[in-house]
Every structure is written in structure tokens, then in C-alpha cells.
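HUMAN: Ready with one sample?

ASSISTANT:
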Amino acid sequence: MAELLEPGHGPVRTCIGCRKQGSRSQLVRLVAQGSGSSAVIVDVRRRMAGRGAWLHPNDKCLALAIKRRAFGRALRGAGDTAAVERFFLPGMPPVEAPAVAGKPSKPESGSEN
């Protein structure tokens, strides 16, 4: 998995699942959604505000992190990992935040009757 890195090769992060170190490019950043929510979301661009946790992008590290309850410790009480689990499923697009369905501002043509 992660190899020991020599100093000077960029930032080193620790996986909350396996507890091994790796470079930022090898790990996925996770953040608590905020606003009183306990949801953990994937920060694909690694730019979201707030405290972050890092995880290797594989099922083994995800399972270890869930088993050890590492999300709640790393992200101060966040524990809803549904978005992270969806991110790791094959064929699923990355999830950053829940979509909000809205009503169109104008009716479609022909529906004014």
C-alpha cells in the first residue's frame, strides 16, 4: 500500500482506516458536512473548508475506518458515512453534497392552460 516517504516529497497524511501514511495524492479527503449534520462527505477537489480526514481509496480501509469508528473521532462527532460508501461503490459518481430538487421558475411551453 503506502510506502514510507522521504522528507521533501510533499505533504504526508495518515489514513484513518489502516493508519498508514501516504502522500495527499494517494488518499481521499473527507470532511463533515457541517450545519449540525453528522454526514461525512468526500472532498474530491480537496478544497472544502473545515477539518479533514484522509482515507485510502479502497474497500479495506473504509471497512477498517467504520469498524474502528474513526470518522467520529477524526471529524468530531460525524458518523453518517453513506456518501463515502456510495463513493467507493463501482460505477457510482462521487458525491459531494445532497442535490436539492427545485421547481422550475417558468412553466414549460404549452403548459399554461
